[in-house]
Amino acid sequence: MSHDASPPGCPARVHDSASGLLLLSSAVGAAEPREVYRALREEWGNVARVELEPGVHAWLVLGYHELLAMVRQEQVFSRDPRNWRDLNEGGVPPRSGLLPMMSWRPNVLATDGLEHRRLRQPLDEVVAKIDQRRTRRQVEAMCRDLIAAFSGRGSADLVGEYATIVPMLALGRLFGLDTAGGRELLRALASPGGSADSSGEGDRRFEEILHDTMRGRRTVPTGDLTSAFLDHPNLATEAEHLQSMAVMVSAGNETVTAWISHTLRLLLADPRFAARLHGGRLGVDDALDEALWRDPPVNNMPARYALRDTELGGQYIRRGDCLILGIAGANDDPAIRPEDGGAEPGNRAHLAFSSGPHVCPAQVPARLITRTAVTTALRLLPDLRLAVAGEEVTWRPSPWTRVPTALPVRFTPVPAAPVPAPPV
């Protein structure tokens, strides 16, 4: 089928670039991305041609089963961007905003096979050592402090004043940083989900903070994750220690911010869903999972690179082609989506954490942090409500992560707790 015109009976073409292809960031930033992905599926099928930025093309894998097949075949679809033909041939500009997420780095994200397993094992084992009860108490205390800073006003931005801050403070604490250190990490971290224009200085400062933390733990080991990475026999060099820490912190920051934001937005903007929660028919974990089905934090995840000519979803894939995991589209695939479009309570078959060898290793702490942030906000601000219509919420520009620019809310002001008088 030609893609120069809409097939008879199909919706209008979903493109907005000179090439006639969909620019991926326009889907992530749409009011309802699922409608864009559905139109794209109508036009192309389960594997669609898109633009990552003007002139840089890729395949977006929208089919649930096609996505699983791709991520489980690392002998055909590599995670290593050194196999990306367009990058090797100069088709990606040196200052492209794609490179923070898609350039090669010597870490677990860009490896396959035995090397990937060697670098992945420390992540799995270190995450398994997290004391969940202690972490929950620490995160709850952080959330209470953040809410106390704005609860007397009766209004707040739950993204800028809450959801953006909680993950980095929580991750910083896991690695042995105090609140001031966590906030410094947050300031330094140039989000890889956005532009690369000013990321260099922030990235350098981010790595300096991690280096300083590593040096301190070599002198005085503790029970935090920094010490655990330094002690792991699979990590042989300082660079491997640093990259393992950087992957966990940077990958967990914006995704958990998005998950907290989406869950709160779902509960505030969908009265029927909120009524089911408050009526006891659903739990907070059901709301967390519904948010992952409807609006996964990473709508589209880079990337896999074809190691040979092959076929996927009826499309001819050439060696060196770039393929993007269309997680939001795959979650909405008619082959697995319930007719009413909602998820059954307890169904965690979504692809928000990917699958295969590169499945997210930190699902448990991510859920713990998100659940604690959501439940604490609902408990301390019981009449929380959106200050704008749900459809008026706008989104940070990105082809990857879907994070609200703001989530303005109102609530009954809560007087600050009185400060105890000093003893006489």
Features:
424 residues; alpha+beta; Cytochrome p450; six-stranded mixed sheet; three-stranded antiparallel sheet; 46% helix; 10% strand; Cytochrome; Cyt_P450_CS; monooxygenase activity; oxidoreductase activity, acting on paired donors, with incorporation or reduction of molecular oxygen; heme binding
SSE map:
Layout: E1 22-23, H1 24-28, H2 33-44, E2 47-53, E3 56-61, H3 64-71, E4 77-78, H4 85-88, H5 99-102, H6 113-128, H7 132-150, E5 155-157, H8 159-163, H9 166-174, H10 179-188, H11 199-219, H12 225-231, H13 238-269, H14 271-278, H15 284-294, E6 301-306, E7 310-312, E8 315-317, E9 322-325, H16 327-331, H17 363-380, E10 385-386, E11 408-410
Parallel strand pairs: 1-2, 3-9
Antiparallel strand pairs: 2-3, 4-6, 5-11, 6-9, 7-8, 10-11
Helix pairs in contact: 7-9, 7-17, 9-10, 9-13, 10-11, 11-13, 12-13, 13-14, 13-15, 13-17
Protein name: Cytochrome
GO molecular function: heme binding; iron ion binding; monooxygenase activity; oxidoreductase activity, acting on paired donors, with incorporation or reduction of molecular oxygen
Family: Belongs to the cytochrome P450 family.
Descriptive notes:
The protein has 424 residues and is α+β, with helices and mostly antiparallel strands. The chain has a single domain (22-410), classed as Orthogonal Bundle (Cytochrome p450), CATH 1.10.630. It contains 17 helices and 11 strands. A 6-stranded mixed beta sheet has the order 1-2-3-9-6-4. Helix 7 packs parallel to helix 17 (363-380), helix 12 packs antiparallel against helix 13 and helix 13 packs parallel to helix 17. The termini are far apart.
